[in-house]
Amino acid sequence: EGLRSITYSRRRQVLLFFSVLCLSSVLGQVSYSIPEEMAKGSLVGNIAQDLGLDVKRIQAGKARIHTGDSAEYIQLNKEKGLLIIKEKIDREALCGQTTPCALHFQIALENPIEIFPITVEITDINDNAPVFEKEERRFEISESAVIGSKFMLERAIDPDIARNGLQSYTLKPSDHFMLKLHSQSDGGKKVEMILQKPLDREKQEFASLLLTAIDGGEPQRSGTMQIHITVLDANDNAPVFTQNIYKANVKENAITGTLITKLSASDVDKGSNGEVSYVIGNSMSSISKLFLVTEDGHLILNGPIDYEKAKKYEIDIEAVDRGGLSDSSKVVIDVGDINDNSPIINMISSSNSIGEDSRPNTVVAAMSVNDPDSEENGKVRCVIDKNIPFIITPTSTNFYSIVTYSELDRERASEYNITVSCSDEGVPSLSSSVTLTLQISDVNDNAPVFERSSYEAYIVENNTPGLSIFTMKARDADWNQNARVSYILEDSSVNGVPVSSYVSVSADSGVIHAVRSFDYEQIKDFHFRVKAQDGGSPPLSSNVTVKILIQDQNDNPPQVLYPVQTGGSLVAEMVPRSADVGYLVTKVVAVDVDSGQNAWLSYKLQKATDRALFEVGLQNGEIRTIRQVTDKDAVKQRLTVIVEDNGQPSRSATVIVNVAVADSFPEVLSEFTDFTHDKEYNDNLTFYLVLALAVVSFLFITCLVVIISVKIYRWRQSRILYHSNLPVIPYYPPRYSDTLGTGTLQHVYNYEVCRTTDSRKSDCKFGRAGTLPFHNTFSAVLLSELNGPLLPSLLQS
Ligand SMILES: *[C@@H]1O[C@H](CO)[C@@H](O)[C@H](O)[C@H]1NC(C)=O
Ligand SMILES: *[C@@H]1O[C@H](CO)[C@@H](O)[C@H](O)[C@H]1NC(C)=O
């Protein structure tokens, strides 16, 4: 098809040139016009016909083409008289840009010589495309290049001329650049590429443009050049954080270096323009000290954080690229609480001491308790020891008071250590405690108490006045003044005399002193009350009974009751000469007002006219004969009997007993010549004797009746005991049992004697110790000495 079109085009050209030929043949000059690039052998023109020559002439004329020095592109076909292409003709090589382009040659004939100039014009065909010198061109353009920036491009070359020459350029794609052509003086065109839309490396870093140069031939030809544009980065993008706000949690007390969060900002720029570094933007230095952000965006903890100081941190973070562009973000860090604070106990006020009479619910101390931790970690409970009479009660939030719970008693506990323990509810729980020392002050609520419920003390009679008898002691459980005990003797009387004249009590020491010297024979015991009173206000007191027992001393010698010792008169016992051995001459009767051993008497014969005739009963004082009285024995016998008590030292009394050994009164009287009496005395004697006889008889009978009735009574008693099969217990009156354990004497004669020294009235009684066989002797004496002066003296005593 291509070939056919070429052929067609040549035919048109040929027709065109024929009209030219007709014109020039007239002038004798033949011109042809052929397009370049015709194939070898192609017809240029029928020269024979155009020159009007016969083919024979051409053959005969040896026609030839004369070209001078130029190459032979065209040859002559002599047989047909045609000009044909010998060498392919390239117009561009032949003429370059010169127009018109023609081959000038002559056809020379001989015989005759004829020369015909021939001109063959070579017309251009579009056989050359525009061509760039280089196939590609590289540009590096900063993305910051301003609109209108110009970039010079190479021109393309198209050797064809006129319409077949270079006509225009196109650039594709044309979104950023446009072309601008400047016509040059040489007819060429300067090509510029102008930036018409900003470049953005971040959108498109590389661009490939195709520059096409187009000619105007038919068909059109073009040449291209690749333009490679590399967009250079400019720092036109700031870093951008991935989040507006970063949230993070960190536990308080987390160790330094703990990663809190990872920050990230991106910068679409390239290279150093895209290198982001992070800084903490807070101007508050405390925050910038606490946290640290690394180059690569790790936010790490750089110091201790304390929930109790700050629960939340807001950190401004900046991301900066090398070009100085930045973005900011915020990190919100919630600090998590850890139970790291013990409760803090603050005593607001507390008493050092309270009275033991304080009522329940008395406030002892008030305090506040705080725990800076949060939630459960900050919930506090306070307790105190259960075993003390105090409780802790909350008064309002975080306030507590300690109040008394029950009665206090200083005497039971004078001091309390109240330990308040507060603990929070964290896990593990933390606690703290405070100890409060509370003194219980004294109130006089205890009376003095004597060590014993009653006191009994002994004092030996004849003491020196002022002697301390004993010390009593009362204790008071209270304290100090309330426990200072004074002893007070309470008023009472002993035998009608105020007790204060017997004893005194030392108020401070409780020593009881005898005020006077006591006489056992006068007073054997007495009692009184002593009050112990403390120094409180009002004072409390108690009292106790004190019994003082006076102990006997051997301060009284025995007293001989019989025989009566009269000053001048002479009394004698009569012993008949016929008396047998063991004849009871008389009985010495003595008493001792002391008691016990001190009154325990023994009798001894101290002196005797004839020691071999009489003896004295050691215990009973009976004087008996120990041999038969003989005629040789003197009528007048004189015995000295000593009576001793058993005291230490013992005291004694002596008595002289006169014994007359005779059968009749006259004999006695003659012997006792110094028995001289007044006549007057003898006159009255008869009357006295009769009176005495009557009295004695009455007494005797009375005694008999009493003794018999006692005997009968005892017999009956013993019968009753016998019949009731009970063991017969010998009856000892209470006093008899006091044998003082010596046991040497089976019979103790106890005379309970109340003596009055000067009174004539005798209080002496032979009381219940009625077994004294005194009445026998008594009657014997009465019988034997009716005429003697015995009776008055007996009555006297
Ligand atoms: C109270 O504590 C003090 C000091 O620790 C101690 O000396 C005292 O004996 C304690 N008192 C009581 C009643 O425990
Ligand atoms: C002595 O104490 C008793 C109780 O032990 C009391 O009843 C009595 O009134 C007190 N006497 C005096 C005088 O205080």
TrEMBL record:
One of its GO terms (biological process) is anatomical structure morphogenesis. Keywords: Calcium, Cell adhesion, Cell membrane, Glycoprotein, Membrane, Repeat, Signal, Transmembrane, Transmembrane helix. It is found in: Cell membrane. Residues 33-132, 133-241, 242-345, 346-450, 451-560, 575-672 form the Cadherin domain. It is a single-pass type I membrane protein. InterPro entries: Cadherin-like_dom, Cadherin-like_sf, Cadherin_C, Cadherin_CS, Cadherin_N, Protocadherin/Cadherin-CA. CDD domains: Cadherin_repeat. The chain crosses the membrane at residues 685-710. GO terms for cellular component: plasma membrane. It comes from the Eukaryota. PROSITE patterns: CADHERIN_1, CADHERIN_2. One of its GO terms (molecular function) is calcium ion binding. PANTHER family: CADHERIN-87A, PROTOCADHERIN 1 GAMMA 11 PRECURSOR-RELATED. Potential calcium-dependent cell-adhesion protein. May be involved in the establishment and maintenance of specific neuronal connections in the brain. This is Cadherin domain-containing protein. It comes from Sander lucioperca.
